[in-house]
Write a structure and sequence with these properties.
125 residues
Length: 125
């Protein structure tokens, strides 16, 4: 089966990305799936809402698995990610958009901070 041009581009993007770029992609992906979860709840498509919410949970699990535990910050990040995971599960059970908004705020802050750190690292290099 042939891949579409968009799928090929996306695959190339992932396979050639640096670890920092991959983390940024994970944050952006989580935000995209949160938006889709919210939209599916709004339209009453609870099956899709569940599917999208689980994709956000998968992304969180990947972020947790890739934390570098050599740094003290990793332990704090793990606690925040764990909290976010619990909130996502709760949002999925209750179909609660307010909880999704809370989790989204974390992702936006992490993504924006990560982008800023990437810029600083490029300037230093």
């Amino acid at each position: 089966m042939y891949q579409s041009a968009a799928q090929t581009y996306q695959n190339n993007q992932v396979t050639t990305a640096t670890p920092a770029e991959l983390t940024l992609m994970l944050y952006n992906g989580a935000l995209k799936f949160l938006k889709q979860t919210r939209g599916s709840i709004g339209t009453g498509d609870l099956e899709k809402a569940n599917e999208y919410n689980k994709r956000v949970q998968d992304i969180l699990q990947e972020l947790m698995a890739t934390l570098n535990k050599e740094y003290p910050l990793a332990e704090q990040m793990m606690k925040v990610y764990d909290y976010m995971m619990k909130r996502l599960v709760e949002a999925n059970i209750r179909k609660d958009i307010a909880i999704l908004d809370e989790v989204e705020e974390f992702f936006v802050q992490f993504r924006d901070t990560w982008k800023e750190a990437m810029v600083l690292m490029k300037k230093q290099a």
